[in-house]
Write a structure and sequence with these properties.
Elements (H helix, E strand, L loop, with lengths): L15 H10 L3 E5 L5 E4 L1 H7 L3 H4 L4 H4 L2 H4 L2 H9 L4 E8 L5 E10 L5 E7 H4 L16 H11 L3 E5 L5 E3 L1 H7 L16 E2 L12 H8 L3 E9 L5 E12 L5 E10 L1 H23 L3 E6 L4 E4 L1 H7 L14 E4 L12 H8 L3 E9 L5 E12 L5 E10 L1 H23 L3 E6 L4 E4 L1 H7 L14 E4 L12 H8 L3 E9 L5 E12 L5 E10 L1 H48 L4 H31 L9 E3 L1 H18 L2 E7 L6 E3 L1 H17 L5 E9 L3 E8 L6 H6 L17 H11 L3 E5 L6 E8 L5
Parallel strand pairs: 25-27
Antiparallel strand pairs: 1-2, 1-5, 3-4, 4-5, 6-7, 6-11, 8-9, 9-10, 10-11, 12-13, 12-17, 14-15, 15-16, 16-17, 18-19, 18-23, 20-21, 21-22, 22-23, 24-26, 27-28, 28-30, 29-30
Helix pairs in contact: 17-18, 18-22, 19-20, 20-22
């Protein structure tokens, strides 16, 4: 560091090529325009800022790049600069990708009318020195280039003369923290120069003095400068002699760099390297790095875990890593590895499935990606590989694929139509049965559903697109069951189908599609209608026949009863009395059969519509049933027990029909109870119902008979008394009341038959 303050000598300025190289290496964007603000030059940093190729920018105007709000002030700023004033301001520029970039722009017009501007991205670096914004302004003369360079370099630059004069840029005063006078030389700041350990530098050892005296070049010596305010600045000093044609030193140029930020950045870089190493070590994926020859030089712990170890081998020994192509099973050759292709051909590969055998013998499936590493010149300097162990995922995917294939095979074999839609309702799959039902398939979205012509079977109204069950499933998450619809197939025929649909949901519950099922019930509906007609005909005949039989049977019973009484009073009338009793018994049985036929007609015609419901006391029903059965029980030497332990709520019932149920159960019990035996008639309160039961003593019935005894025409053992309709009729009547009936084993009993009836409303 010496004396003097004047511009650098023109003869010592760098050549234009050097200056252009410096401009291209500048970190800020440098732009030159003609007087019409059309860009004629831009450096590489400017191209990077705006995201354009340099040739794309040449020819564009400033107005093409600035925002609309900045466009209005272009004219006023230009006029200000034409008056000789430099402009420093913030602007918004549109990048090639359409995003906006905030820039700090330093610009001025040169004497030749060209505009020079330096643009800096201030979105991240607003605090950078203002001098850098005017770095390397373009000029047609070497002197202008040099002056612009010196003034805008982020360095303190000084030119020392043998006479003690010193020239300096503004950065020098900022670095030294003081105002310099050109004619006072280095003496004005020499006392602040120290070695890095804090020792003062003797005047004859100051760099500018040494270079001026010895003609030596000094590169990158470190010093500590203490400013007048006491602050300390680490400084990197470089200096070179300026010699005339005879080799005499005629000056010294020195460059002084404030290393405070550099040292801070170095510390940050080291910290960043430690951070990157930590990240490298904890990454859950394996990472391998190779040099430009393909030799593996680095691997992280995850890579070692995946491979069961690490071998940092050369490219020629990649075969030690055993691997196969998943799709073909073919072993990997050295040239097929992603690292080889990256280093030899600059190829990037992503997500390749590879089957490997790790060094511990385990077989795994990995996801393999590779890319070349390039130096600052774009040359391949190495390669990087990233691997991820997806063994479990791959096996799960294989199982899922197998499951999907199985599901598709099952769907194809299902005899009903199956339709799958996506989350938008678009039909994506239909099985063969569905195609047969509809006579074809239309893979359409909801808006195309009207191509499937259908009507509601109940109303005959057409089914709109949004009314289809599949549409409701994907839109509202609705599940539909057994919707009866009439369709016209694509071949024109009409059919009746039952339609179901439900939403398909992800694990998170999100609707991702729908499944619909069609069952062709055309033939079934036809047969069902025929059966219904046959049942109606049968029930009508039964009702007519039973009604027509009741009157003559009643008359026969009355006549037989009268004959019995008269024969009892006549001497020698015993044969007539026995005949009359036989007629009464047969008439009673015939009347019971007629009642059975009427009960079948009641159940077959809808049950409840032919019943007369009223609140009835269960104890009254049991008492009447027991009174009617006691004479016959006494004649058969059977004990009839009535068991009602509590006050029971009323039930809603047709008392005549329930009495008939109880009579059938008691008659059946007496028929199969061996004297002397016991029959128990009971009732008890249950949850919302009253439970009635009839139990009789005797050998227990086999379990299979308990399940079948309520079927029509069932008879116990070889007994053929009666038509076998009694228990079947009991079930029909009880179910018509909204109840249920069953048989169950009971300790010491042949069987216990139970039925429940709902309580009367409010009881």
């Amino acid at each position: 560091m010496d004396d003097v303050k004047q511009p650098a000598e023109p003869g010592h300025a760098p050549d234009p090529a050097t200056l252009r190289a410096l401009v291209d290496l500048a970190p800020d964007g440098i732009f030159v325009t003609d007087p019409a603000l059309r860009i004629t030059f831009v450096n590489k940093a400017g191209c990077r800022l705006l995201g354009y190729g340099c040739q794309e920018i040449i020819g564009m105007t400033v107005m093409d790049l600035v925002s609309e709000e900045d466009l209005d002030r272009v004219g006023s700023v230009k006029e200000e600069m034409l008056r000789g004033n430099a402009h420093v301001g913030e602007w918004r520029a549109r990048r090639k990708d359409g995003t906006w970039l905030a820039l700090e722009v330093h610009a001025k017009f040169l004497p030749d009318g060209h505009l020079q501007a330096i643009a800096r991205d201030i979105s991240e670096r607003k605090a950078n020195d203002a001098e850098r914004d005017t770095l390397l302004q373009k000029t047609e003369s070497d002197r202008q280039w040099l002056r612009t360079l010196v003034e805008t370099l982020p360095l303190a630059v000084m030119l020392f003369r043998p006479d003690g004069q010193v020239y300096f840029n503004r950065r020098t005063e900022a670095l030294l923290g003081m105002t310099l006078l050109p004619d006072r030389g280095s003496a004005q700041y020499a006392s602040g120069i120290h070695f890095p350990d804090g020792r003062p530098v003797p005047p004859d050892r100051i760099v500018s003095a040494r270079v001026m005296r010895d003609g030596e070049t000094v590169i990158g010596e470190e010093y500590l400068y203490v400013r007048p305010d006491g602050s300390r600045v680490p400084v990197l000093v470089s200096a070179a002699p300026l010699k005339d044609a005879d080799g005499r030193v005629v000056g010294v140029v020195g460059a002084f760099q404030d290393m405070s930020e550099h040292m801070r950045l170095e510390q940050a870089v080291r910290a960043n390297e430690r951070l990157l190493q930590s990240i490298f070590d904890i990454l859950p994926v394996g990472v391998y790095v190779a040099d430009r020859t393909g030799s593996l030089v680095r691997a992280n712990p995850a890579g070692e875990r995946i491979w069961g170890g690490t071998r940092l081998v050369t490219l020629e020994r990649y075969g030690e890593y055993k691997a196969w192509h998943v799709d073909t099973g073919k072993p990997f050759e050295t040239d097929e590895w992603g690292m080889t292709r990256a280093i030899k051909r600059g190829e990037t590969s992503r997500g390749e499935l590879v089957r490997i055998q790790s060094f511990d013998g385990a077989l795994k499936t990995i996801l393999h990606s590779a890319a070349p590493l390039r130096d600052e010149n774009g040359e391949i300097a190495g390669g990087i590989v990233v691997i991820e162990d997806i063994t479990a995922l791959h096996e799960a995917q294989e199982k899922q694929r197998a499951s999907e294939q199985l599901m598709r095979a099952v769907i194809d074999l299902i005899p009903v139509g199956v339709w799958i839609t996506d989350r938008e309702g678009n039909i994506t799959l239909a099985n063969p049965a569905g195609e047969r039902i509809w006579g074809g398939v239309r893979y359409v979205g909801v808006e195309g559903y009207p191509e499937y012509r259908a009507w509601w079977a109940e109303t005959g109204e057409p089914i709109e697109a949004e009314e289809w069950a599949a549409s409701r499933a994907v839109r509202y998450g609705e599940t539909s069951h057994s919707e009866l619809i009439r369709i016209q197939t694509f071949d024109g025929s009409f059919k009746t189908v039952i339609n179901w649909a439900a939403p398909i949901r992800s694990d998170a519950g999100e609707i991702v599609g729908a499944v619909a099922v069609n069952e062709d019930v055309t033939s079934l509906m036809r047969v069902e209608e025929q059966l219904r007609q046959a049942v109606r005909d049968r029930e009508e005949i039964l009702a007519i026949v039973s009604h027509d039989l009741r009157n003559p049977l009643n008359a026969l019973m009355v006549a037989a009863t009268a004959a019995e009484r008269k024969a009892r009073m006549l001497p020698g009338g015993e044969p007539v009395q026995q005949l009359a009793e036989s007629l009464v018994d047969m008439s009673r049985r015939m009347a019971g059969l007629v009642d059975d036929l009427l009960a079948i007609a009641v159940a077959g015609n809808g049950g409840q519509s032919m019943l007369s419901f009223a609140p009835v006391a269960p104890s009254g029903l049991l008492g009447r049933a027991a009174d009617a059965a006691r004479p016959l029980a006494a004649r058969q030497r059977l004990e009839l027990v009535l068991d009602v332990k509590e006050e029971l709520p009323m039930v809603a019932a047709d008392s005549d029909r329930i009495l008939r149920v109880l009579a059938n159960l008691l008659d059946n019990a007496m028929k199969f109870t061996t004297p002397p035996g016991r029959i128990t008639l009971a009732a008890e309160r249950t949850n919302g119902t009253v439970r009635f039961s009839v139990a009789n003593t005797g050998p227990a019935l086999p379990p299979e008979q308990l399940e079948t005894m309520f079927k029509p025409f069932w008879q116990a053992g070889r007994d053929r008394r009666g038509a076998g309709l009694g228990l079947s009729i009991c079930r029909s009547v009880v179910e018509a009341h909204g109840g249920s009936i069953w048989a169950e084993p009971a300790l010491g009993q042949r069987v216990r038959v139970c039925f429940v009836l709902p309580r009367a409303v409010g009881m």
